[in-house]
């Protein structure tokens, strides 16, 4: 499977504008413990952007699920969010990237070739071993899951031949293996700010071979948990079994870290919505992707947008850092000195991105732009708008796959939201989580700040 084929959960039509302000056209709940992928390490900006480029080229009753979050989306500190889930019987913990831009769940498996044995993220990696789980079973190529995932029978399929998977990312990194069925353990919402363990059965990838950055210890996780629209995604499988609704929401807090991630029906706060576009074969539209850190715009939008933004500060001295980031010194309040960028979607839905969100601070008086030119990346994505954590942070984003809508609102992601239990009709509060290490995250941020500061000073001398 090529991740480019189903890159995003939501592709929507949009227009852009800059205002002085700048506007732009363009039963049941489960929770997860989530942490930012790059928390606690000295991650430079090139590595964050390289990660983004790689992506562009990857028993429950009907319940609400709470997925506790950690980390933050600040480019100079962290890069992605990841969660802790349980797999197998007895259940063992696995840390997986939470990704709205891909479909399947896959984890590294025992006897894997070139799977990482350790991670620099401050987590303990665990290889999944189907032989050690009493509830695991293999998935074969003639079974419905396999034929539906590949849109028909696989050539050469024979009885007892395992259903294989292969995901290739834009930079050539890949994961390959076979599908298994086993128990997944999630946190079911049981009351106000309360959860309890609950199990379901899902089919997921058992990684037998990794290549590229997926095998790197510096960014290693146990796997990826996709929240895409395909029937192969965990949320679609659980929904087909009547266990959850095909609805989920996240609120990524890059102020205090962590945030909220829940599967189920959010009843408060209310949000305005815009239609999703189920098929983006023309490679146009807007992708909303929690697995991407920065924000990518086509050249036809990026260039006039930057011109308009910079016109508000004509005396600004710009420096190019790492050959790709536009940075500068500014000692005042950026929200007073730069315009708000607004993305206008169908049905009058607006996504406002404030200067303190699209600019990230690398020290007290030094800032860089989070906007990137997608036209400089690849032919396939040059006409796409791709919105990552940089602009999704500090907003409650609600995905309704059942009704093909997506919506959002500005929100305090360190607070709580309310979800409705499908069976009883009871409304429960789901709160924010931060399972990251504050001290390690700050240390990683300091290393990055120093790296960029040196680059800025070098640019100044030059």
UniProtKB/TrEMBL annotation:
One of its GO terms (biological process) is proteolysis. InterPro entries: Aspartic_peptidase_A1, Pepsin-like_plant, PEPTIDASE_A1, Peptidase_aspartic_dom_sf, TAXi_C, TAXi_N. Residues 81-409 form the Peptidase A1 domain. PROSITE patterns: PEPTIDASE_A1. One of its GO terms (molecular function) is aspartic-type endopeptidase activity. It holds the Pfam family TAXi_N. Keywords: Aspartyl protease, Glycoprotein, Hydrolase, Membrane, Protease, Transmembrane, Transmembrane helix. The keyword Phosphoprotein does not apply. The keyword Membrane applies. The chain crosses the membrane at residues 443-461. The active site is at 99, 289. Belongs to the peptidase A1 family. This is Aspartic proteinase-like protein 2 isoform X2.
